[in-house]
Design brief:
Shape: globular
CATH superfamily: Ribonucleotide Reductase, subunit A
Distance between the termini: 29 Å
Number of helices: 11
Number of domains: 1
Strand content: under 5%
Helix content: 55-70%
Length: 327
């Protein structure tokens, strides 16, 4: 039996569980269930009004990016992951993850409803701002391959497409780009601003840390079960995806903070992006590429690597799941 498969009658029995890491992550995800309106976001309105134009621009820019791309993650899951996974415990987790992504969309809608932000302008930015549109096109390229064309998951190339999509949405979008945005969002609270908004982001980060663990476990399981994928050429391709994603994020962050705010500018954020990229490369078994240290040490608890694994070795992919923050 393999974690990959497309048979409708596969994965209809939960027990015996074959991939305990997926079952554990499902249990943790259920325990993490939350609802946006439990956070009293209106209490942050006074902070928003006294923020600078650059700070309000940054917050709006983040919402412009997060809102559509949480929905894009669900397309990546629905078209590119769920149909090609056979294990029931993985299906359970993916179903909960898709609900969480929808919940995140509603959380960011709540931000747009609460603060005096021009919704139409915010919505349009992911198309109108070239650096933001370029990031989206990077993702869409991989999702489109899974959604609009037939992928034969029994072939080497089909399995590679599955891994490419996983790396694009999970390692890049959720594991680097989203975390870069989370750091900026939470930096306001470091200056005693938008504390309730920070609490909302804390909940989102808690979900995303599990999404990242699941996705990396899934990538590594597929590689472990399909040794024909473990070639130097494919590894180089996956590594280059991460490096290309860093360049896209660096351009985006220059538009996010064109002039800088107190204690932060685009160079600071991009150093954090390179630090994140090194952690994700290490989680996939590569060597770090950039060598940047973490400039936002206060974010370390959300990003420390719990377990390093190797892209080319048969390994135990059971990531630790407990009360500590994830990768």
């Amino acid at each position: 039996m393999s974690i990959l498969g497309t048979g409708i009658t596969e994965g209809l029995l939960l027990k015996p569980v074959r991939y305990q890491w997926a079952a554990d992550l499902y249990d943790q995800a259920v325990a993490n269930t939350w609802f946006p309106h439990e956070v009293q976001l209106g209490e942050d309105l006074a902070d928003f009004r006294r923020m600078s134009e650059e700070e309000r621009h940054a917050l709006t820019f983040l919402m412009s990016y997060f809102n559509p791309n949480e929905l894009l993650v669900n397309k990546a899951l629905a078209f590119g992951v769920y149909p090609y996974v056979a294990a029931a415990e993985a299906h359970l987790y993916l179903a909960k993850q898709m609900w969480e992504e929808a919940n995140h969309v509603m959380a960011f809608e709540y931000v747009l409803e609460t603060f005096p932000i021009n919704r139409e302008k915010a919505y349009a930015a992911h198309v109108d701002v070239p650096s933001m549109a370029a990031k989206e096109e990077f993702e869409v390229r991989y999702v489109r391959r899974m959604a609009e064309q037939t992928v034969d998951i029994t072939t080497v190339e089909g399995k590679k497409d599955f891994v490419r999509n996983l790396v694009a949405y999970n390692v890049v979008l959720e594991g680097i780009w989203f975390y870069s945005g989370f750091m900026v969002a939470l930096s306001f609270r470091q200056r005693n601003l938008l504390r309730n908004f920070g609490a909302l982001i804390d909940w989102v980060v808690r979900d995303e840390s599990l999404h990242l663990k699941f996705g990396i476990n899934l990538v590594l399981t597929v590689l472990e079960e399909n040794p024909e994928l473990q070639t130097a050429e494919f590894a180089d391709e996956i590594r280059q995806m991460v490096l290309d994603a860093v360049a896209l994020e660096e351009a985006y962050n220059r538009d996010l903070l064109p002039h800088g705010i107190l204690g932060m500018n685009a160079d600071y954020i991009n150093s954090y992006v390179r630090y994140l990229a090194d952690r994700r490369l290490e989680e996939l078994g590569f060597e770090a590429h950039y060598g940047d240290t973490n400039p936002a040490r206060w974010m370390a608890t959300a990003n420390d690597t719990l377990q390093l694994v190797n892209f080319f070795e048969s390994i135990n992919t059971s990531y630790e799941v407990d009360a500590r923050a994830g990768s």
